[in-house]
Amino acid sequence: MSEQRHAGMGALPHDGGTAFRVWAPHADSVAVAGDFNEWDASAAPMESEGNGYWYADLPGAAVGHGYKFAIVNGDQELTRIDPYAR
């Protein structure tokens, strides 16, 4: 795993885009939907890191883009703002 992966939570901008990390311990899947993918949750699925943490690195995402996390838990499909968003 890269150093970027352990750099923190929320949206983590870097030279090549933005990495996203969130804690969603009861989720079956998590994705990022935002301005950078026309709010299409299926375009940016996150990878489970274990212990409820989810991660994605999206080259098209940049500072200033709006986004939410799309969370699936059983039959529930929810969108949530990033609790670490500024």
How big a fraction of the residues is strand?
A: over 45%
Catalogue the unreliable spans. none
**CATH fold-level name:** Immunoglobulin-like
User: Widest sheet: strand order?
Assistant: 1-2-5-4
Series of H and E elements: EEEEEEE
Task: Note down, in words, how this protein is organized.
- The chain has 86 residues and is an all-beta fold.
- It has a single domain (4-80), classed as Immunoglobulins (Immunoglobulin-like, Sandwich), CATH 2.60.40.
- Helices cover 0% and strands 47% of the residues.
- The protein has strands spanning 10-14, 17-23, 29-34, 47-50, 53-58, 67-73, 76-80.
- The strands form two sheets. It has a four-stranded antiparallel beta sheet with strand order 1-2-5-4, with no helix packed on it. The chain has a three-stranded antiparallel beta sheet with strand order 3-6-7, with no helix packed on it.
- The radius of gyration is 12 Å and the shape is globular.
- The mean pLDDT is 91.
